[in-house]
Design a protein that fits this description.
Helix 1 packs across helix 5. The mean pLDDT is 93. The strands form two sheets. This protein has a three-stranded parallel β-sheet, with helices on both faces. Strands 1-2 form a two-stranded parallel ribbon. The protein has seven helices and five strands. By secondary structure, the protein is α/β, with parallel strands linked by helices.
């Protein structure tokens, strides 16, 4: 993420990368930002509670989830529910969440693709309607919808089992 951000926006103070979390690689990431001469454009937020995550989403233009592996990506749904477009890796769960009208997928570890996605989303930002992004999240991932989908799966499994008997 840091390398892709540097490639796309190094030296353009209009852009700021905010990184949440406080893992074991934080110091290395801070050093990388220094090495790439983007330290003043990168803000390390540390650990965030739920309210702070929500506040960051509300005040962000995009959420990027550059995971190598992602089973689902709850933070993607959280971002969408706030009307914020997303950029995520083409790795498992995000494939079933990210559509072209709500975000962009890129291949894990591909700095060039992520950098291009950052620039493309910015250039086409007016195509990402916050109200439609939020509606997509509610229509597809709200508690009610997920519950209905789970019930349908259970009914299907139970029906299949009764036929097998």
């Amino acid at each position: 993420m840091i390398r892709a951000f540097a490639k796309a926006y190094k030296g353009n103070d209009k852009f700021v990368l905010k990184i949440g979390g406080d893992g074991k690689y934080r110091r290395q990431l801070e050093n990388l930002a220094c090495e790439l001469n983007i330290k003043r454009q990168v803000e390390f937020l540390g650990s965030l509670n739920r309210e702070q995550v929500r506040e960051q989403l509300w005040n962000s233009n995009v959420l990027v989830l550059p995971s190598y592996y992602e089973t689902f990506g709850v933070v993607l749904i959280e971002s969408l529910s706030s009307g914020t477009p997303i950029i995520s890796t083409n790795s498992g769960g995000p494939v079933d969440i990210v559509r072209s009208d709500v975000g962009i997928l890129f291949n894990p570890g591909n700095v060039s693709q992520l950098s291009k996605a950052l620039v493309d989303l910015y250039k086409n930002y007016d195509l990402y309607d916050p109200c439609l992004i939020r509606k997509y999240a509610v229509d597809n991932f709200s508690d009610k919808i997920i519950t209905e989908k789970l019930i349908d799966v259970y009914k299907e499994v139970l029906n299949l089992k009764s036929h097998d008997l």
